């Protein structure tokens, strides 16, 4: 069972001091991060917070050495902003920041390691194989059984991800995925409904069922297309309670905290739920999912940003 949304703990924006909204950076998700950051910046300023944009970790470090900021709203997507590097830096410097700590950030960013944690606890996730240099990728696909998903283990926003429906498509999928850092992951493709659950503190928000116009929820459907449907709540009754329970368990077992999002597939035939990944700095764009779920329980975007920042005090 999830807990009710608590009242705001802080009402005076001056309590936050000067806030760096960290965005952009140099990961493959830079443009999405800039979009998210601009939205967060505007929302915090609209509520009187002394918020300022900072592009990338090197610029933030220079500002922090000059003691320019009291805390950081991290909205860097991917790369060192989401893999524990930034979190370790801020922790060492004693600067409060939004989102998960070092362990949760590192585990959630690495899809292979987060799967290993979930499987050790009996939490459901699609069968997978770790692809290393020299592996027979065609044999791996046969072992899992087509169709499969091939993706980099440490990227987000569907970057480098391919759906492989036939053996002839395997090589191209691997060629795309190896352009990105980290190991490769080949995963059983679950055919069914794609869902996501936002996490705010120790609360699982209502699920969202994503219905793209095309065959699947790729980068274009996430950030460009205006015809993707978002159904919230995505499930009902006992099924909705179960997906919220599962998402919160997955988030917490990976060491995540603060806020984030857990992506889930629901098998079309069996109705079984499968964990895909946890996100510790999810998007805050006009298409993003956590704000949509928060709105379902009466939390508008500016209040959502305030609540996330509030967890740093």
TrEMBL record:
Q: In which pathway does it act?
A: Cell wall biogenesis; peptidoglycan biosynthesis
Major location, coarse class? cytoplasm
Q: Which residues bind Mg(2+) 2?
A: 277, 279
Query: Where is the secretion signal located?
Result: none
A single GO cellular-component term from the record reads: cytosol
Keywords assigned by UniProt, alphabetized:
ATP-binding, Cell shape, Cell wall biogenesis/degradation, Cytoplasm, Ligase, Magnesium, Manganese, Metal-binding, Nucleotide-binding, Peptidoglycan synthesis
Q: Which HAMAP family match?
A: Dala_Dala_lig
Q: Which PANTHER family match?
A: D-ALANINE--D-ALANINE LIGASE, D-ALANINE--D-ALANINE LIGASE B
Q: What is this protein called?
A: D-alanine--D-alanine ligase
Q: Could you tell me which species this protein originates from?
A: Luteimonas cucumeris
């Amino acid at each position: 069972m999830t807990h009710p949304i608590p009242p705001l703990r802080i009402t005076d924006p001056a309590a936050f001091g000067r806030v760096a909204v960290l965005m952009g950076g140099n990961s493959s998700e830079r443009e999405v991060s800039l979009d998210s950051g601009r939205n967060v910046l505007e929302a915090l300023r609209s509520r009187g917070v002394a918020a300022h944009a900072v592009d990338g970790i090197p610029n933030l470090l220079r500002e922090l050495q000059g003691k320019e900021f009291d805390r950081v709203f991290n909205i860097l997507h991917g790369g060192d902003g989401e893999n524990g590097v930034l979190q370790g830096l801020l922790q060492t410097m004693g600067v409060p920041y939004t989102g998960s700590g070092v362990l949760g950030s590192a585990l959630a960013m690495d899809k292979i390691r987060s799967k290993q944690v979930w499987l050790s606890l009996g939490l459901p996730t699609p069968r997978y194989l770790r692809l290393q240099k020299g592996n027979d990728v065609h044999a791996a696909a046969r072992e899992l059984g087509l169709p499969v998903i091939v993706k980099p283990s440490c990227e987000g926003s569907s970057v480098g991800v391919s759906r492989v429906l036939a053996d002839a498509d395997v090589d191209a999928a691997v060629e795309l995925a190896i352009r990105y850092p980290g190991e490769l992951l080949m995963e059983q493709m679950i055919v069914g409904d794609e869902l996501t659950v936002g996490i705010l503190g120790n609360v699982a928000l209502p699920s969202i069922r994503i219905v793209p116009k095309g065959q699947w929820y790729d980068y274009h459907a996430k950030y460009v297309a205006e015809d993707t449907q978002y159904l919230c709540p995505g499930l009902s009754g006992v099924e909705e309670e179960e997906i919220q329970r599962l998402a919160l368990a997955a988030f917490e077992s990976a060491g995540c905290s603060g806020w984030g999002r857990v992506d889930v597939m629901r098998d079309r035939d069996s109705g079984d739920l499968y964990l895909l990944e946890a996100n510790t700095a999810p998007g805050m764009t006009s298409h993003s999912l956590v704000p949509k779920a928060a709105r379902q329980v009466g939390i508008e975007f500016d209040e959502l940003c305030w609540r996330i920042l509030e967890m740093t005090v």
